[in-house]
Amino acid sequence: MSIIERAVIVTQGSVLQLAEPLKVLQETPIRTADRDGLAAMEREHILKTLDDLGWKIEGPDGAAQALKINPSTLRTRMKKLSIKKPKISR
């Protein structure tokens, strides 16, 4: 039963009254990516997926399959979001 339904049932008179006081929910902290927007969140997600899969883009264990997108679409998104494979220092 919703708060409104319960209030309608228990209210006596013409002014709707809540049966119980409303609880204040704690605010959850905002991640950096949330403040920066959708593109930053997408970039973060793609980078994590690529990193987790050893920067493999195509194939059965590739990032494109994990992200459920076409490999060419992933490459396009990477270019737009300035995502490049890190160089290995020797």
N-to-C CA distance: 64 Å
Q: Provide a count of the helices.
A: 5
Shape: elongated
Question: Mean pLDDT score, rounded?
Answer: 86
- Determine the strand fraction and express it as a percent band: under 5%
Question: Roughly how much helix do the residues carry, as a percent range?
Answer: 40-55%
Q: Would you count the extended β strands for me? A: 0
Ranges where pLDDT stays below 50 over 5 or more residues in a row are none
Q: Can you summarize the main beta sheet? A: none
Structural class comes to mainly alpha
How much is the radius of gyration in Å? 24 Å
What kind of assembly state do the chains in view correspond to? Answer: single chain
Tell me what the structure shows.
The structure is a single chain. By secondary structure, this protein is mostly helical. The protein has 5 helices and no strands. It has a domain of 53 residues. The longest helix is centred in the middle third of the chain and has 15 residues. The radius of gyration is 24 Å and the shape is elongated. The mean pLDDT is 86.
Key phrases:
mainly alpha, elongated, 90 residues, 48% helix
Short characterization:
This protein is mostly helical and 90 residues long. It is built from five helices and no strands. The termini are far apart.
Topology summary:
Layout: H1 3-10, H2 32-36, H3 38-52, H4 63-67, H5 71-80
